[in-house]
Amino acid sequence: MQPKLEKISSNLLSSLAVKREITPYMDYPLHYHPEYEIILVEKSRGIRLMGNHVGHFNDGDLVFISSNLPHVWKNDKEYYQGNKDLNVDVFVIHFREDALCDGFFNLAELTHVKKLFALGKQGILIKGKDHEVIASLIRKVYHTSGFERLITFLHTLDAFANAKEYELLSSHAYAESNNNTETERINLVIDFLMQNYATEVSLDQLASLASMNKSSFCRYFKSRTHKTCSQFLNEIRITHACKLLINTDMAISNVCYKTGYNNVSHFNRQFKLITGSSAKAYKKEFLKNV
Question: To the nearest whole number, what is the mean pLDDT of the chain?
Answer without folding.
Answer: 89
